Request: fold
Amino acid sequence: MTQSRGYAAQSATTPLAPYQFQRRDPKGRDVVVEIMYCGVCHSDIHSARNEWKNAVYPMVPGHEIIGRVTAVGSEVTRFKVGELVGVGVIVDSCRSCPSCKAGEEQYCDNGATLTYGVTDRHGDITYGGYSNNIVVDEHFVLKVSEKLNPAAVAPLLCAGITTYSPLRHWKVGPGMKVGIVGLGGLGHMALKFAHSFGAHTVQFTTSESKIEDAKRLGADEVVISKDANAMKKQASSFDFILDTVSAPHDINALLQLLKRDATYAQVGLPDTPPTLFMGDLIFKRRNMSGSIIGGMAETQEMLDYCAEKGIVSEIEMTSIDKINEAFERVVKADVKYRFVIDMATLK
Ligand SMILES: [Zn+2]
Ligand SMILES: [Zn+2]
Reply:
């Protein structure tokens, strides 16, 4: 077995604490990664605290992983020892269903294997990136350019691809007016991508203190969504809106801002169903949709695009012994815009 050290939650109500565990010995197609950095995603907190009611303990969270390859199995063809790599939200899928065959492994009809907190196809519980190493099939390992700050690349593995994929799927580009709802870990990446793709980009936020930041990160306009007059001025003018907010909010007021036939895509997952007024869809044939991360090929495309364009996440570094404080600050939205754990602090 592969010896590992990390930080785990032992129950929904206990803070994360040091934990020793084992991962499988690398098989033929496995890559062993020594973890350098891991981003702190809001999902890590929902999961560690069992807010989605499906937690498996002990839980080692973390699915925005950057590290270096320290060993490869005999059948590995794409990676060599020493390479900089990333691991994101999923580490396996069935590889044979229509979604997997289409390169959309995240929608695997038999269930993609999450990087932490589930039983994998070997029968082991998966443990995430708040740890010193990870063993992953090479199909689910990404190549990372040496050109960018690797710590700031880590959040691209979840926050980045979660926003890149829907913006690409709905073909956001020049000549389009695109709204981004929420300016947090996901929202700030959505803003950077929509701006980079050449769209006229409008940031929606409830907080006036974020106006300057939004402009710096690429917003052509910023709308305070609590300001009814400001919202009215934007009516029926958007080609696409990407909503990154998981807290309860008025989706109907935002739907009314879409043009006829335009699409509203949700990537923030509220834990209670929102109230939707169907008239807002019916009277202008608007579309309501959703999206989750991206397939492995698209995730690689996103990382390559970011290396070419110099796009990374805005991060605040933290150490593993401060992870419980970091969780509290994420819950209060008190981070610009993503915590990244320097895993050297685990030693
Ligand atoms: Zn995530
Ligand atoms: Zn599948």
Q: What stands out?
A: Residues 2-157+313-346 form a domain with the Quinone Oxidoreductase; Chain A, domain 1 fold (CATH 3.90.180.10). The CA atoms of residues 242 and 265 lie 5 Å apart. The chain has two domains: 2-157+313-346, 160-290. The first strand starts at residue 2 and ends at 8.
